[in-house]
Amino acid sequence: MELFLSLCLGIGLSASCGFRIFLPMLVANVAAMNGWISPGEQFGWLSTWTAFFALGTATLLEIAAYYIPFIDNLLDTVATPAAVVAGTLLTTSFIEIDNPMLHWGLGLILGGGTAGLMQAGTGILRLLSSKTTAGIGNPVVSTAENVASFGLSGLAVFLPVIALVLVVLLALWLLKRLLNLKKS
Question: Is 96 helix (H, G, I), strand (E, B) or coil?
């Protein structure tokens, strides 16, 4: 059961990385510092004050940058591989499996894949917003992404199974929308 819950936590936080890269890491940091969750031994740095200040600064800069026209679209280009890395790192930090290949493989496939899928969806949404509103609607999209990232991160920490169900439903919906766009 512990492995299942840690996978739920990791996948929920990873999906949140698809909306914002650093915010879920900051939430994980605060939760770890308060003893609400426990990262693996190799990831003890996640519960330090140094990580708090670094992740807090990165989170504030990332959120602010997404409200600047043109920069938001540019960030989406860089954010996709960064979200995969962050998702992999977060999932790997909470699952404890003795086999390093399986440990990192699960982190990459489940965490990185989930983060990458969510980031692809938000990138397409921002491009559509830019195209249809000439960028005027992008701050609304950014605000929705901030709320989604924070909300899903909180769910992952406090109600990980519900977060997993929500992520699966969101991923299915997103895949359906992407397939419909491809057919059009």
Answer: coil
